[in-house]
Write a structure and sequence with these properties.
Layout: H1 5-9, E1 17-18, H2 24-34, E2 38-43, E3 46-52, H3 53-61, H4 72-75, E4 77-78, H5 89-99, E5 103-108, E6 111-117, H6 118-141
Parallel strand pairs: 1-2
Antiparallel strand pairs: 2-3, 3-4, 5-6
Length: about 150
């Protein structure tokens, strides 16, 4: 079965977003409060960047920036790569591996519809593997195995 990003991997997400002018502290608090590892950076309805935990570590903490005065525009990944809702889970994994990403925004035309994470993709493939094992066990050990004379 081919899994599309929407609705098979993500659906009905509440988008967590900030503006480039918001403080780095605001991004860190939002991530903590929502238990997420990435935030969309938006100008109105337009995606302009993404901020991740990795950005916080490498571009704020390691660089010695003050999270109260630094703004998201200073640390975000601008114009991030994106996925479309019709891309497959396999497309997402390929892009994440080749470009060393853990999160990718999902954009339908100009509208942001979600964010997919490597954890989301892991959950999909884990479910598929579990079902595959159940199907194989049913075939090998279940009633569908062999023919009785």
């Amino acid at each position: 079965m081919i899994r599309k990003i929407v609705p098979d991997v993500i659906s009905d997400q509440v988008l967590q977003k900030l503006t480039p002018r918001d403080s780095v502290r605001a991004a860190a608090k939002l991530m903590r409060d929502k238990k997420i590892a990435a935030v969309l950076v938006m100008e109105g309805e337009r995606l302009v960047g993404i901020v991740t935990e990795r950005d916080m570590t490498t571009r704020v903490v390691a660089a010695g920036l003050n999270p109260e005065t630094a703004v998201i525009a200073d640390i975000m990944t601008a114009n991030p790569d994106t996925l479309s809702p019709d891309d497959t889970a396999q497309d997402a994994i390929r892009m994440m591996i080749s470009r060393n990403y853990r999160h990718l925004p999902v954009v339908d035309g100009a509208k942001v519809v979600g964010m997919v994470s490597v954890r989301d993709l892991y959950a999909v493939y884990n479910t598929e593997l579990e079902q595959d094992l159940k199907d194989r066990n049913a075939f090998i050990y279940g009633e569908s195995y062999g023919a009785m004379a």
